[in-house]
Prior knowledge:
The protein is an alpha/beta fold. It is built from four helices and 27 strands.
Amino acid sequence: xxxxxxxxxxxxxxxxxxxxxxxxxxxxxxxxxxxxxxxxxxxxxxxxxxxxxxxxxxxxxxxxxxxxxxxxxxxxxxxxxxxxxxxxxxxxxxxxxxxxxxxxxxxxxxxxxxxxxxxxxxxxxxxxxxxxxxxxxxxxxxxxxxxxxxxxxxxxxxxxxxxxxxxxxxxxxxxxxxxxxxxxxxxxxxxxxxxxxxxxxxxxxxxxxxxxxxxxxxxxxxxxxxxxxxxxxxxxxxxxxxxxxxxxxxxxxxxxxx
Length: 258
């Protein structure tokens, strides 16, 4: 099901059941896995690897050069996993030589119209991004997160797992796992209780996370000391271990309380 108007490089590797819509262009060093469907007027440049069962809607631009003035035609890459939905007018860039050398999008993500994913970004799995979310370079979005429409994420920021970022927020610091943030600049409003419940967190797990956030934001401890205290209070707790590890690895600082 390749439209007669599509232009496909002889060096592209496309599975036999891939659909390619009208006037789409697939360049050199592009690989596309089984079951993927590509709409009309899509441009995919390589090196780009796209997995199985993705749905890419019309007018997307994928695997183009990074928007980075230091880029000198180095061999970098875009990698897209399996079962992603990429809606209209999305544009994703390859990595840079001084970054990860690759931009990576995982599996089962739903990326709505006009989403921009810049060079060297990493998206894990089961992420939803509403319309016109804009990621600067080197952003890392962890699994099961929701990013509201028109949100902008500053370069090198990390968004923790099971997080909700409010629409039109400007994120300039790392966002803690399990949290809700919003605003310009984005601040932590609460624990993302509904999101945790939807992901089958028990009442007991949620209760511990809520206590952890009280210690982080409502006690006399600074963030570093609160993280140390959490390790003492909840040894071996996987949710707390992930939260503390996220804090300890932060380079941009943690979003404060609203």
